[in-house]
Write a structure and sequence with these properties.
Elements (H helix, E strand, L loop, with lengths): L16 H18 L7 H8 L3 H7 L3 H20 L8 H28 L7 H21 L7 H23 L6 H20 L3 H13 L5 H17 L2
Helix pairs in contact: 1-2, 1-4, 1-5, 2-3, 4-5, 4-6, 5-6, 5-7, 5-8, 6-7, 7-8, 8-9
Length: about 240
C-alpha cells in the first residue's frame, strides 16, 4: 500500500488592513477584559493575536495607549447597543432586557470594566473619559425614551442620571462581591430602584408624575410595578400607623 500523502499546510492568508486591525483589537479586548490596562503589554497582544510585536506597532503606532483607547471605543459601542431596545411592551420589561445585556457585558469583561469605570490608571486620558461619559449620556437618553419623555425637565433628567450612576456603582460592587447576588436578582433590584425613584419624584414633579402614569398604563397586573407596590404596602402602613 502506498502511504497517504500528507496534506499541505494551509496557505497563508493575507488580511486586509481593516481585518488585521480588528484581529489585533479583539486580542487586546480579550486581555483588557480581565486585567487592568497598565498590566497588558503590546508584546502580549502580539502573542495573543499570533503576530509579531512590530506588526502591533504598525497598526497602532501609539502602542498600548492607542490600543487601549481603541478598545474603549469598541467596548463603548457594545455598551451603547446594550441600551438599545424597541419601544414595545411594558417599560419595565424593556428595562429588564437592557439590564440583562448590560450585566452580561459586565460579567464578560469584569476586571476591564472595573478599571474603565473606576479610572485613575496610567492609561486613562481625557479621550477615554469622554468616551465613557458619552455611553452614560446615551444610556440616559434611551431610558428617557422608554419613559416617554421627549423633552425631559431637570428633575426627570437628574432622576435618570442618578439611576445610571447607581447601576454603575451596583455593577462594580457586584464584581467586588464575587458576582453575588446572581445577575437576575440584581437586575430585578435595579428595576425596583428605578420604579421607586420614579414614584418618589412623581410626588414633587408634574412631568415625572405624567411619565409614571404613562408607564403604569402599559404595565401588566403582575408586572414589576404591581409587585413592588404590593411588597411596599405593608411597610408603608407600618410606618404611617401609630
Amino acid at each position: 500500500m502506498t502511504a497517504a500523502t500528507p496534506a499541505p499546510p494551509p496557505a497563508y492568508r493575507r488580511l486586509s488592513v481593516e481585518q488585521r486591525r480588528t484581529q489585533l483589537l479583539e486580542a487586546a479586548l480579550t486581555l483588557f477584559a480581565h486585567r487592568a490596562p497598565e498590566d497588558v503589554s503590546p508584546e502580549e497582544v502580539a502573542a495573543a493575536a499570533g503576530v509579531s510585536r512590530p506588526l502591533v506597532y504598525r497598526y497602532f503606532p501609539g502602542g498600548k495607549q492607542q490600543l487601549y483607547e481603541a478598545a474603549v471605543r469598541s467596548s463603548a459601542s457594545r455598551l451603547e447597543r446594550c441600551f438599545t431596545e424597541p419601544q414595545a411592551g411594558p417599560p419595565t420589561e424593556r428595562v429588564k432586557r437592557v439590564l440583562d445585556r448590560y450585566l452580561a457585558f459586565v460579567d464578560e469583561h469584569d476586571t476591564g470594566f472595573s478599571a474603565l469605570l473606576r479610572g485613575g490608571g496610567v492609561c486613562e486620558t481625557s479621550r477615554t473619559t469622554a468616551i465613557v461619559d458619552e455611553v452614560r449620556r446615551t444610556a440616559a437618553e434611551q431610558i428617557l425614551l422608554h419613559l416617554g419623555a421627549d423633552r425631559p425637565g431637570p428633575r426627570l433628567r437628574m432622576l435618570v442620571r442618578t439611576w445610571i450612576a447607581a447601576v454603575e456603582s451596583a455593577s462594580l460592587t457586584w464584581l467586588d462581591e464575587d458576582k453575588l447576588p446572581d445577575a437576575g436578582e440584581l437586575r430585578d433590584w435595579l428595576v425596583d430602584h428605578l420604579v421607586a425613584l420614579l414614584a418618589t419624584t412623581a410626588t414633587r414633579d408634574e412631568q415625572t408624575a405624567a411619565a409614571v402614569a404613562a408607564v403604569a398604563a402599559q404595565e401588566r397586573a403582575d408586572g414589576a410595578v404591581a409587585l413592588l407596590a404590593r411588597r411596599l404596602a405593608p411597610l408603608v402602613e407600618s410606618m404611617t400607623s401609630g
